[in-house]
Design a protein that fits this description.
By secondary structure, the chain is an alpha/beta fold. Helices cover 39% and strands 13% of the residues. It contains twelve helices and twelve strands. The structure holds 4'-deoxy-4'-aminopyridoxal-5'-phosphate.
Length: 359
């Protein structure tokens, strides 16, 4: 009997990779499963990409992405040396885990949060300690701060949290920063523009703060893959070292040009962001009328459960009606569905489908 040899490194064999939400190949689905912005990016983005495509594609892009970093810095009230950019914030997060959290003590994170954090920790063999959220899926910042003060390898939190949408006030973030001044506190603000409170103003006072954001959600650029981290230059230098030991040109010319154009169109950003917030608030009321319990969301999605309907069955019934939402088969949140905020028409289609299913 012959056996096929495994060529895999033991750590890769033991990994449980992140499973992204479905990107269906079928047209005309109401796609509310991966927290994309339902609106297209600013028209200026397309012009900038067109222009960039017409010149210089035979040349490598700027490895340091100086123009983009300066554009982000200007928007965030920082200096270009305080900004790091990557191919989506997932890549920025991966580099940050590698750069800061390989420590003797465990990395702290809530037990309900973005599931990619645990994958990065596994990938880099970083021990994690999970801080339980309460019944309402809220994180007790004081308990986390007390645990951190006893010694830890760092803290990672998403604010607003994913997949709950619940935001944490800045005062709580500050308590975490003070609790472990020797370690990095990474605040993932992927959804902050939809109503959260950003920790960017704390950067000047806290050398251990790294804020990660993305253009995927509030700037409608999930397809372009641009994320960034902000922090004092010492943290950014560490991220540059990782990047330059991995891929020195993570952002291509088109992505950099499109991102700069998106950041420059503040009016488009505000208009689409306000529409998403407004639709979220309307959808929340409609879902409440249908009997759903909805966690208070500061993000571009809502996390909901129905007291008398199983989440898996609901997701399947919605899919049969061409509406995609996200279910996580994970402890503590298996009864919930995460619904991304679509256009008003898409949310109406969702509500109509749910009304039929619950009837
Ligand atoms: N952080 C959180 C909390 C997210 O939900 C996501 C999107 N899945 C990301 C980071 C990554 O976003 P991107 O790589 O598109 O910037």
């Amino acid at each position: 009997m012959s056996t096929v040899p495994s060529f895999w490194s033991p750590r890769i064999a033991a990994l449980e990779p992140y499973v992204p939400g479905e990107q269906p190949r079928i047209a005309n689905l109401v796609k509310l499963n991966t927290n994309e912005n339902p609106y297209p990016p600013s028209p200026r983005v397309l012009d900038a990409i067109q222009e960039a495509a017409e010149k210089g594609l035979e040349r490598y892009p700027d490895p340091e992405s100086v123009a983009l970093r300066e554009a982000i810095a200007a928007r965030c009230g920082l200096h270009g040396t305080q900004v790091f950019v990557g191919n989506g914030s997932d890549e920025v997060l991966a580099h940050a885990f590698f750069a800061f959290f390989q420590q003797a003590e465990p990395l702290l994170m809530p037990d309900v949060t973005y599931s990619f954090y645990r994958v990065y920790a596994q990938l880099y063999a970083i021990a994690c300690e999970l801080q339980p959220v309460d019944e309402g899926l809220r994180l007790d910042a004081d308990a986390l701060a007390a645990r951190a003060a006893a010694g830890c390898g760092g803290i990672v939190i998403a604010n607003p949290n994913a997949p709950t949408g619940i935001g944490m006030p800045l005062a709580c973030i500050e308590r975490l920063l003070q609790a472990c001044p020797q370690r990095v506190v990474l605040v993932d603000e992927a959804y902050v523009d939809f109503g959260g409170e950003s920790a960017l103003p704390l950067i000047a006072r806290y050398p251990n703060l790294l804020v990660v954001q993305t253009l995927s959600k509030s700037h409608s650029l999930a397809g372009l893959r641009v994320g960034f981290a902000c922090g004092q230059a010492q943290l950014i230098d560490a991220l540059q070292r990782v990047k330059n030991s991995f891929n020195s040109y993570p952002l291509d010319r088109l992505a950099a040009a499109g991102a700069i154009a998106a950041l420059a169109d503040e009016a488009w950003f505000s208009k689409t962001r306000d529409a998403v917030i407004d639709t979220r608030d309307g959808l929340t009321l409609q879902l409440e009328d249908l009997g759903f319990e909805i966690l208070p969301s500061q993000a571009n999605f809502v996390f909901v459960r129905h007291p008398s309907h199983d989440a898996v069955a609901l997701a399947a019934a919605l899919r049969a009606r061409a509406v995609l939402v996200r279910h996580f088969n994970q402890p503590r949140i298996a009864e919930y569905l995460r619904i991304s905020i679509g256009t008003r028409e898409q949310c109406s289609a969702l509500v109509d489908a749910l009304a039929q299913i619950l009837d």
